[in-house]
Amino acid sequence: MISLSTTPEPRGVASIGPSPWYTRAMEHLIEVVQALSQARDIATVAAITRDAARELTGADGATFVLRDGDKCFYADENAIAPLWKGKRFPMEICISGWVMLHAEPVTIEDIYADPRIPAEAYRPTFVRSLAMVPIRKDAPIGAIGNYWAHNHQPTAEQVSILQALANTTAVALENVRLIDELREKVDTLEVQQARIKEQHDSLEVFTHALAHDLKEPVRTVRAFSDLIVHNKSGQSNETYFDFIRAAAERMAMMVDTVFDYTQLHDPARTVKSDCPMNEALINATENLRQLITERRASIRTGPLPMVSAQPSHMMQVLQNLIANAVKHSPDGVKIEVSAEDKGHCWQFCVSDNGPGIDGPDLKRIFEPFRRLRQNEEGAGLGLAICHKIVTLHGGRLWCESEPGEGARFLFTLPKAESAGMSEDETQAAPLEKVTGDGLARVLLVDDREADLELTRILLRERDKVEWNLSVARSGKEALSLLTQAREAGVPFDLVLLDINMPGMSGFDMLRALRAEADDTAVIMCTGSTYDGDIQEARELGAQGYMVKPPSLAQLRPMVDDIPELSWQDEGVTARLMRAA
Question: pTM surpassing 0.85?
Fold first, then answer.
């Protein structure tokens, strides 16, 4: 601490001009003013002021007080012993409050002789005398206090220096306020500029679509329309109409995709909630059901977590990444969706065993309209939309790949408040009441509600099959029902099992079933005609392989090979019975 003589000028002795102490104090105050002029936050102002207040007057302690509504907030202090740093007191009972309310300084030689002092608050401290000045005389915003451990009457020069420090502090605090406002405005401007850039990028995407991708189907429609109008050969126009229809569908797809992309520039439109990624995956694979079936793709996944996101956006990200893997891989591609807890976020991975991506293309695949192959269908915006959605949610999306070794698309997302794994918690449906003496008990397992209903209608209503039928909507639910039935003494006789289900595939369930030494007869009931799936079903011990839509014509010969079951025909009705 700078040593400044604090010997007060002799009382009753006239002095001419400022004392040597005052001159030295003013020189030091100039240094303090320079330091305050460079302060950029309140904490720095408080630290400079508290130290200077004690150094300039040689006091035993100094406090920096700010007005906080109707309270005095003792923001900082520099003293020989603790005072009230961090505490708040009502304005009306605090001497600093009195100074602010009256906008004038006060000096007290004996604190216990002044009624404005709350003696009990001071009794545990070293304070015996004080001087307090307001920060800013017009509507004070704070106060600076000096304290002495002995009875001391502060001189007029000391109070003057202290008030000069307070006035300089007021300017510094105003500068901090202006700087904070400027920072807020700069931040707002940067956000606006970023939004303008995103809107400009979206406009460029739309312009690109108009200039290139949308012109192609329009040109096709126009050209074949002209051919139809001027067709003088007498040949059928059916082929021409097929080309026109395909061009119109491509145009509609382009318009929808470009519109979706251009809507992803405003974070305010992203309504986040606790989003179960298992559910998003189910919806995504449902939308891709036809593509997955046609290309004989398979999707495996474990339990996926809950994230803070817009559910429709998460479904779109998973759908685009899975579709990208299916379309760019040979038939029968195997895709896996997984999640890893990274502490502050969840990291997801959509991997495949496809052909992989060349190194130079890894940096370009997320650019709008980027296609890696000629004559590639689609708008070229799928991965760009994924990248924009993930970024909009505060995450990151990237790709890791080596040619010939598949691709791994990884992305991060913020955790939901209930951030645990949203493992399939579907409660097992109660067992249906057994009806019909000797009728076989059959469990139909499929995650798709439409397929469950279609199977029931086709076999029960159309083909007149009679049995005791229960349903399960996941592999885990099916295993639970099988165990429940076995323990109840009414085991199932047959399982009709879908292959492509999220969470636990049909093959995974069949493996688990056999691992439990459960030899319940299983017939796969799936849309896949892939030879590899048929072979795997056979190797896992399935008694049959039925392709959707199911029919009695397919099912009957498969059941004939199961000794425990038999058919009992009664007119047009085929009753599936337990063998006697």
Answer: no
